[in-house]
């Protein structure tokens, strides 16, 4: 069976290419138990043909050219590379050692303009660990530094897509999303209440829409921040919103509708309560199917059935691991939990 590539999509942020070790190589994998989410499906004993680092054929009946290098899988499972979402891979080594944490900024002048691509470390020891779990690509997202209580930082910054191949340059695509957090933690950074946060966010977007001159901005955005938000307002760069409570999700959807923003929900433990509204707006969701024990009042409605309800409603979802760095490979097991709950 012919196919251009075996693809496991992560809400449209990337499509599978082979890891760096296989780039620009010709080889075949035989005697493989192939598992794919695409038209090839499951093949108990099949062959995969790779040309110039890309999969060109896969299935039970694949003709191999003479002289091709062959890897015998001996019945082992072969899947497309997994794309991990909501990670800090390449930015964090030891959470308790501040010198190894590069996923956040406490600068008074940088919020939306913070860009994770400049802090990536290809030699991070967490990358090969994630790769052992079948992860070949990862979405690296910035976080907030709440050490400075006087700083109002609306946005965490720009996310990037990285390749977990064994090369020195892991950056695959920078600036693939702008990260924002709303709800309990987001409100604490913008005025101390959800009402204040959403009012300020609307004023920021309205101000940018009106293209006010530099200096005519009361919301603390630097010129760099304003430029970073231009593709978001133009609908070219998605706004990845960390959100949990159903009521906050509805506010995010309203914000997206009013300002014509391309939105992706992250976390979204109570998304199942408004699944039809999310589906109607074709908004994707990044979620952890193991989230069923509320860690705060934003997540009282958390349930292991969140993923199943969202998929039944027609929402496109992507599965995350259990933290941003050290347990990214858990996404395989989390996917299994989602399946076990429907």
Please, could you describe this protein's structure?
With 342 residues, the chain is α/β, with parallel strands linked by helices. The chain has helices spanning 126-132, 184-189, 194-210, 223-233, 246-259, 275-280, 306-313, 331-340, and strands at 27-35, 42-51, 54-59, 69-72, 77-78, 82-87, 135-140, 155-163, 171-181, 239-243, 263-267, 285-287, 317-319. The chain has an eight-stranded mixed β-sheet. Strands 1, 2, 3, 4 and 5 form a five-stranded mixed β-sheet that branches. α6 links the parallel β11 (263-267) and β12. α3 packs parallel to α5. The longest helix has 17 residues, at 194-210. The protein starts with 26 loop residues before the first strand and ends with a helix.
Q: How would you summarize this macromolecular structure in one to three sentences?
A:
With 342 residues, this protein is of the alpha/beta class. The protein is built from eight helices and 13 strands. Helix 7 (306-313) links the parallel strand 12 and strand 13.
SSE blueprint:
Layout (H helix, E strand, L loop, with lengths): L26 E9 L6 E10 L2 E6 L9 E4 L4 E2 L3 E6 L38 H7 L2 E6 L14 E9 L7 E11 L2 H6 L4 H17 L12 H11 L5 E5 L2 H14 L3 E5 L7 H6 L4 E3 L18 H8 L3 E3 L11 H10 L2
Parallel strand pairs: 1-4, 1-5, 6-7, 9-10, 10-11, 11-12, 12-13
Antiparallel strand pairs: 1-2, 2-3, 7-8, 8-9
Helix pairs in contact: 3-5
The helicity comes to: 10-25%
Low-confidence regions: 1-22
Q: How far apart are the termini?
A: 30 Å
Number of strands: 13
Keywords:
13 strands, eight-stranded mixed beta sheet, globular, alpha/beta, 8 helices
């Amino acid at each position: 069976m012919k196919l251009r590539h075996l693809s496991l999509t992560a809400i449209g942020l990337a499509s599978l290419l082979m890891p760096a070790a296989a780039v620009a190589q010709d080889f075949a994998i035989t005697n493989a138990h192939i598992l794919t989410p695409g038209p090839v499906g499951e093949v108990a004993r099949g062959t995969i043909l790779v040309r110039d680092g890309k999969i060109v054929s896969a299935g039970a009946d694949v003709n191999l050219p003479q002289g091709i290098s062959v890897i015998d899988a001996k019945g082992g499972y072969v899947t497309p590379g997994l794309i991990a979402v909501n990670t800090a891979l390449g930015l964090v080594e030891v959470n308790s050692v501040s010198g190894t944490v590069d996923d956040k900024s406490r600068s008074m002048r940088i919020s939306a303009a913070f860009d994770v691509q400049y802090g990536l470390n290809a030699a991070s020891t967490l990358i090969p660990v994630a790769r052992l779990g079948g992860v070949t690509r990862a979405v690296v997202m910035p976080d907030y530094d709440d050490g400075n209580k006087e700083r109002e930082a609306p946005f965490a910054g720009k996310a990037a897509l990285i390749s977990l191949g064994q090369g020195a340059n892991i950056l695959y695509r920078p600036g693939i999303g702008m990260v924002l957090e709303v709800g309990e933690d987001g409100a604490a950074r913008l005025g101390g209440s959800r009402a204040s946060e959403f009012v300020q966010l609307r004023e920021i977007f309205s101000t940018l829409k009106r293209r006010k001159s530099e200096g005519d901005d009361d919301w603390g955005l630097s010129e760099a921040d304003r430029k970073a938000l231009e593709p978001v307002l133009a609908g070219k760069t998605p706004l990845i919103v960390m959100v949990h409570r159903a009521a906050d999700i509805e506010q995010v959807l309203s914000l997206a509708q009013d300002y014509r923003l391309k939105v992706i929900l992250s976390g979204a433990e109570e998304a199942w309560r408004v699944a039809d509204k999310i589906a109607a707006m074709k908004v994707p969701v990044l979620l952890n199917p193991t989230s069923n024990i509320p860690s705060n009042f934003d997540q009282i409605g958390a349930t292991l059935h969140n993923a199943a309800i969202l998929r039944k409603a027609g929402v496109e979802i992507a599965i995350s691991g259990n933290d941003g760095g050290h347990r990214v490979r858990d996404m395989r097991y989390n996917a299994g939990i989602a399946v076990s709950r429907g």
